Amino acid sequence: MRNFTYHNPTRIVFGKETIAQLTSLVPAGTSVMLTYGGGSIKRNGVYDQVRRALLGHSVVEFGGIEPNPQYETLMRAVGRARETHIDFLLAVGGGSVLDGTKFIAAAIPFTGSDAWDIVAHNAPLLSAMPMGGVLTLPATGSEMNPSAVISRDSTQQKFAFGNDLLYPVFAVLDPLTTYSLPRNQIANGIVDAFVHVLEQYMTYPVNAPLQDRQAEAILITLVEETPNIVKDPPDYDGRAALMWCATQALNGLIACGVPTDWATHMIGHELTALYGIDHGQSLAVVMPAVMRFMADQKHAKLLQYAGRVWGINQGSEEARVNAAIDMTAQFFRSVGVPTKLSDYGISSEAGQRISERFAQRGTLLGEHNTIGASETQAILALCS
Predict the structure, then answer these.
(1) In a shared domain, residues 159 and 239
(2) 359 and 240 fall within a common domain
(3) What is the pLDDT of residue 39?
(4) What's the mean per-residue pLDDT of the chain?
(5) Which pTM does this prediction carry?
(6) How far apart, in whole angstroms, are the C-alpha atoms of residue 135 and residue 268?
(7) Burial class, 321, CB count within 10 angstroms (exposed 0-12 / middle 13-18 / buried 19+)
(8) Do the domain assignments include residue 246?
């Protein structure tokens, strides 16, 4: 096991009808900017619950944060926050709203010449506005980590960034808020959480048995609970399991002391930036191909995954590895998320286009930094 430091300051408030606790969670006397997405929170009653809890606060609203939060949109929020002298940010929505709000929190006090440097060049932050969250779409884990992914429409770029100043002060997780979500968003959330775990687990052994078991527990829970998660009408316990799995998948705990990959995410970000497919869809396409292309390097963990998660213990090692990869893709398809580029109308030219972008940046991915431009093209060839 590698050395590590783990610290997570985010307070989680979990359970039914917990939005009312915002009254005590948001600091008294603060001026609050309420951020949200396309307005679904106004249709499902979450907005009304939040506003009731914020009575007595001065509230400035900023809606319209996109599913892939755009730099251009977020900078308008930054300008408004500066003009109105807000003290606290409250993100209400899914991971994109939380991610966008983290950028707003970083950019408000930023004194550099170009706030895009926060994202593209990890410009150092001296301070950030405090923020909290009300999660309505479990998927990204953004509610309990200091990271975000931001897009820029003008350059067709999508980059991740992070800073310890950007941990939410608190996050309210009420599974009831997920009841009005469309089936495709629930499916994308399942895939996103599952792949977050694989990015931190599917590398190579470093004698970290507890972290392995923690990761496997999240994967097994997602597989076992999926029938309950996608039930109609919604099943509270299933939605609660998904919400907590998604948070645990990316709050840093299972990454302690182990190598991580993230090649699937970086390639997936390019697919979203260039072709507009959902984040979860991009992961479902790329993850099985990365596992297959990197099977020799990931051999030991693939075998462990096959046996412990999928119960595949018979046959040759190669057969078990291939079966585990096949089961992963089948699981994604079973929740309604296709796993081939052609399913989304994306041609094989995507591999060339993305590999050229990686070559220009000198991008190297994977736990061994061995996935460059040519390897990326080969991986995407397996996705067609």
Answers:
(1) no
(2) yes
(3) 86
(4) 97
(5) 0.97
(6) 23
(7) buried
(8) yes
CATH label of the domain that carries residue 173: 3.40.50.1970
pLDDT tens readout for residues 156-192: 999 999 999 999 999 999 999 999 999 999 999 999 9
Which pLDDT value is given to residue 182? Answer: 95
The pLDDT tens digits of the residues spanning 34-78 come to: 999 998 999 999 999 999 999 989 999 999 999 999 999 999 999
Which CATH number characterizes residue 254's domain? Answer: 1.20.1090.10
Q: Are residues 52 and 70 in the same domain?
A: yes
The answer to whether 197 touches 218, Cβ cutoff 8 Å, is yes
Which residues partner with 91 through β-bridges? 35, 133
pLDDT score of 98 more than 90: yes
Mind giving me the DSSP string for 75-118?
Answer: HHHHHHHHHHT--EEEEEEEHHHHHHHHHHHHHTT--SS-THHH
303 within some domain: yes
Query: What b/e readout covers 96-131, taking b as 16+ CB neighbours within 10 angstroms?
Result: bbbbbbbbbbbbbebeeeebbebbeeebebeebbbb
Domain count for the chain: 2
Say if residue 82 is in the same domain as residue 150: yes
Domain that holds residue 366: 185-381
Q: Quote the CA–CA distance of 279 and 277 in Å, as a whole number.
A: 6
Residue 220 confidence (pLDDT) above 90:
yes
